[in-house]
Specification:
With about 325 residues, the protein is of the alpha/beta class. The termini are close together. The structure holds zinc ion (ZN) (2 copies).
């Protein structure tokens, strides 16, 4: 199973402004001077890629594939880029069956849909899945004047809607996808996607107000023993205290769940639209301190804990399970 992140930004896309680009260029040039390195090529290679390019500005969209089978989760602005890639395959010839799972219907998870080119190709069949009963109404609304010039009824592809039952698995393109409830101001459902003994837990958007097994109840199955979890890490420690009930979490909460539930790898996404590279780096440092502290506490208390590999996600990141 391959998990590809096409959009890792939360709440609002984050276009790089000329002022931000200029600031970045100045920082890099200063660091190049300070490094004493004579080759700019070597200097560039010595830096982490996100230091040069940032983490990406597109909002939520994740692609899960195995061979030719594919599940797309959410239609944020990252979906536009994915759609362009898909046009080189069966979708460009009107021969694709496309499955899109929707966690919820906040703008940052929808905004890519009107720009998803495979929807405009006759012959393609697109099936939307969600727990929310009004799934069809919400998607149709995206293709309504005056919000968008192309009315839903004019779309030439065949579009289906499947309402999922909470915590009931559905077979989609050879995967088994099960929705579990997350903690968000409007109902939002995470998905556990399983295939061939591997499990991917998609946990965005969530404030994760329920952490303990007792609080999570049946929803603990979303996390249990997952090979990979993509988790909402929008805020720093300070912000999460200030922004109670805003519906997003801090990375440390995801690590607590992962250590307890035996999750091997965690990627934090839904970066705040105001978070530049430096701010995400700061959140990463905070997360590292928190993780080390929790490990020491567990060791001192002789409590078993799972060694978790974690990282902050960037646009274009791919994880093979
Ligand atoms: Zn969101
Ligand atoms: Zn949301």
């Amino acid at each position: 199973m391959n998990v590809h992140l096409w959009g890792v930004r939360g709440s609002l896309p984050r276009p790089e402004t000329p002022a931000a680009n200029l600031e970045r260029a100045q920082v890099l040039l200063k660091e190049f001077e300070r490094s004493g390195e004579s080759s700019s090529e070597k200097f560039v290679k010595s830096l982490p890629p996100q230091y040069l390019t940032g983490y990406g500005g597109n909002t939520s969209c994740v692609e899960v594939t195995e061979g030719k089978d594919q599940i797309i989760i959410d239609g944020g602005s990252g979906l536009k880029e994915l759609g362009m890639k898909m046009m080189a395959g069966p979708a460009g010839k009107g021969k694709a069956k496309i499955s899109i799972l929707m966690t919820h219907f906040h703008w940052d998870h929808l905004i890519g849909l009107p720009f998803f080119v495979p929807m405009f190709i006759p012959g393609n069949e697109i099936t939307f899945y969600a727990v929310q009963e009004d799934l069809e109404k919400y998607i149709r609304l995206m293709f309504t004047k005056p919000y968008f010039p192309v009315d839903f009824s004019w779309l030439p592809s065949k579009i289906n809607f499947e309402v999922m039952e909470p915590r009931k698995p559905v077979s989609i393109q050879g995967f088994e996808a099960t929705p579990y409830m997350l903690d968000h101001p409007d109902p939002c459902w995470g998905f556990r996607v399983e295939r061939g003994g591997k499990a991917y837990a998609h946990c965005v958007d969530t404030e994760a107000t329920r952490v303990s097994e007792a609080e999570l109840g049946e929803d603990v199955a979303l996390y249990r023993g997952a090979d990979l979890m993509v988790f909402d890490g929008q805020y720093t420690l300070m912000e999460v205290v200030e922004k109670v009930n805003w519906g997003h979490a801090v990375a440390g909460i995801g690590l607590d769940i992962a250590m307890r539930e035996g999750i091997d790898k965690v990627i934090f996404v839904h970066h705040d639209p105001y978070a530049n590279y430096e701010k995400i780096l700061k959140a990463k440092e905070q997360t590292r301190s928190y993780f080390e502290l929790r490990k020491q506490e567990n060791k001192a208390a002789k409590k078993p804990f799972h060694e978790v590999e974690w990282e902050f996600g960037y646009e274009g990141m791919e994880i093979e399970l």
